[in-house]
Design a protein that fits this description.
55% of the residues lie in helices and 0% in strands.
């Protein structure tokens, strides 16, 4: 799963038209390419990723494998979902146990089960 930027508009905004214009720009390839050129932003638009890869390479970070996975369609955009904090609270200890060497890769099946249970509550 790849990055997805959660741009949104607050329902009570005083300038909905201007806010929509800004959020639309943030979701454009042009904006994400410019932001990615700093090496401080991971675009959610695959076509904008090349600028991030180039910038990060100049900083000694090789993202070419990630970028190739994006181009090959191996990674897919993260979908929006409800109960995100509940999913994070349930999965974070499992991630920590895995990376601390306390759990093997069997943890991923448990993470999937727990996430499905939480998301099914919607």
């Amino acid at each position: 799963m790849s990055n997805s930027n959660g741009n949104n508009i607050w329902a009570g905004t005083k300038n909905p038209e201007l806010t929509w214009k800004w959020v639309s720009y943030m979701g454009s390839e042009e904006c994400q390419t410019k932001a990615g050129a700093t090496g401080t932003f991971f675009p959610s638009i695959p076509a904008a990723m090349d600028s991030t890869v180039t910038s990060m390479k100049s900083q000694g970070v090789d993202l070419s494998v990630f970028n190739q996975y994006v181009k090959d369609g191996v990674l897919y955009p993260s979908t929006a979902y409800a109960n995100g904090s509940a999913v994070q609270s349930a999965e974070q200890p499992l991630f920590e146990a895995y990376f601390a060497g306390q759990r093997s890769d069997d943890v991923f099946a448990e993470m999937e089960r727990v996430s499905r249970e939480i998301l099914a509550k919607n």
